[in-house]
Design a protein that fits this description.
The chain has about 120 residues and is an alpha/beta fold. The protein is built from 4 helices and 5 strands, in the order E-E-H-E-E-H-E-H-H. Helix 1 packs parallel to helix 2.
């Protein structure tokens, strides 16, 4: 099984125009990641994402559901304090935030595939 690990250094995500996962950015975000969650596990590092809104949350939920339906996992790691607060407020932190610290890789914007 392959796992894609995305981590941001700068820019936060190469397919987001800002460090915000908000309305206006979510479609490009989904276009880039939906094909991946249909074919492999994905862990997304959100350390540099400073702001998230309902559209961003909906995008994360969409990716999670798509991955589950395809038989894969989608998780986020290292959410910024503000993003972590929002996830906790809406009850998504337990569902989306990776608890497996070994699952986190710091690769810049590169894609790493590992065979299991």
């Amino acid at each position: 099984m392959t796992t894609a690990y995305f981590s941001q250094i700068a820019p936060p995500l190469p397919f987001l125009e800002t460090a915000e996962l908000v309305r206006g950015n979510e479609q490009r975000f989904l276009e880039r990641l939906q094909p991946l969650v249909h074919r492999q596990n994905v862990t997304l590092d959100l350390a540099q994402v400073a702001r998230i809104d309902a559209a961003g949350l909906a995008a994360l939920i969409t990716l999670y559901c798509d991955a589950c339906q395809a038989g894969y996992r989608f998780a986020i790691s290292n959410p910024s304090p503000r993003v972590r607060e929002i996830l906790a407020l809406v009850g998504l932190n337990a569902l989306l935030v990776s608890q497996d610290q070994e699952d986190v890789s710091y690769l810049g914007t590169q894609l790493q595939e590992t065979a299991a």
